[in-house]
């Protein structure tokens, strides 16, 4: 069995999840950060992180961390941590391609006694049913005899400078009781908040996937309530503030549910449920409702424009924000694109402005070219879609100044007081 003193870690995938983890381990142990994108490797070697999850100072502190896009540099490693994305495809089915490719790569350098731990969000059973067979086939080694596995789901919250990898309690698990204990010890080297050792890999996988499913369903409920209250002419935020005076009322707010977690993870669970003959009712209903909120927002906007006698076709609308959440450059699975696409359906010209987002990435991912600056008096409507600090600092007067003399200001994120905007979700 591998000993802590022998550890040489490889972190496969240096995105929002992998890099912070590699940096923390790299402060104490020899670590190779591996990524298939040479540009990402070069960026990190130069001491920069475009995701803004790790500062240049923190990168410098990881004195035992090196970066590579070459598999040969992983041959001396014995503890592999997989942190690649697990997206969904166009049919909202799990896309395990990155996971399978990562497993194939590891299989080429896997040795007897090595441990492979997966952090990517999956459905219960995916590690042992989809990943382990690849490792066995490519390496020629036998699972739980020659090599071992674990699962320790990521809990990274992009853009959150308060909840970091070291101070978020970590779930761990392993393919045997001994391996589970060893994996737990390894993570305890860097996780200051401590760990929770799950009873099996499947339990750890299930725990992760329901974390975001629970949030998704709760937000769907609040979104549905917002639709109901809007029809009744009642301010949703005022209702939620009143209800929130009860000690056990959960403080969810309506909104667009995007990103690579909450808007994606439930489909992994529902996929597995359907494969074993159960059709999930509540989870899928919540997904449908949340996925429809972009279109609902535009419908509300168009109605308000008509009431104000603003010409809809050919109108010019400014969408403030493109990232999937505030103060973060991450545009993966952003639902702002749903608003932009829906506006286009009405032949409305949509300008997008986001100081956090890389313009080239927006162009590549969504064929959107964000405007570089804000001009006053140009727009028939302004949608405050993401609550970046820069937008909060502008205040109602500056936001209003972006619109024409007759315009609609739609505050999706409750940044302004009710009296300062024309519409709220």
Summarize the model shown.
The chain is an alpha/beta fold and 425 residues long. Helices cover 40% and strands 13% of the residues.
Explain this structure.
The chain has 425 residues and is α/β, with parallel strands linked by helices. 40% of the residues lie in helices and 13% in strands. The protein has 14 helices and 13 strands. The strands form three sheets. Strands 3-2-1-4-5-6 form a six-stranded parallel β-sheet, sandwiched between helices. Strand 4 (79-82), helix 4 and strand 5 (115-118) form a beta-alpha-beta unit. Helix 7 crosses helix 9 and helix 7 packs across helix 10. The longest helix is centred in the middle third of the chain and has 32 residues, at 201-232.
So how many helices?
14
| First-residue to last-residue Cα separation | 56 Å
* Average residue pLDDT: 96
DSSP, total strands = 13
Q: Please mark out the parts with pLDDT under 50 across 5 or more consecutive residues, or reply none.
A: none
Radius of gyration: 23 Å
Secondary structure class reads alpha/beta
Largest sheet: 6 strands, parallel
**Strand order within the widest beta sheet:** 3-2-1-4-5-6
Give the helix proportion (percent range).
Answer: 25-40%
- The sequence of SSEs as H and E is EHEHHEEHEHEEHEHHHHHEHEHEHEE
Q: Roughly what fraction of the amino acids lie in strands?
A: 5-15%
Outline: elongated
List keywords for this structure.
single chain; 425 residues; alpha/beta; 14 helices; 40% helix; 13% strand; elongated
